[in-house]
Amino acid sequence: MSIDTVLRDPLAIAESWQAEGRSLAIATVIETWGSAPRPVGSHLVIDSEGNFEGSVSGGCVEGAVITDALDVIESGTPKMLEFGVADETAWRVGLSCGGRIRVLVERLG
Question: Which of 21, 42, 85, 91 has the highest local Cβ count within 10 Å?
């Protein structure tokens, strides 16, 4: 992830993308435990083409969140995602540092 990605405001990007007519989802960190790299309230914005801005985990779970966000854009049904070292997905997404994160993914618009 580049420093530009960290410094850009994902909510401002979402507003811009909505003005362009893109279908979007927003992922928001709602709970962390242990060594989660992003605080509660962090955002990742995803469009229907898989483009994204922001971060919910510093790269640990973004790929999995983007995949689920594409489903949310299509269905309109929000999803609650949980990743952590005690979860069977921990090794798949790389949260081997011992943290846990809950992310809410919702369609925008």
Answer: 42
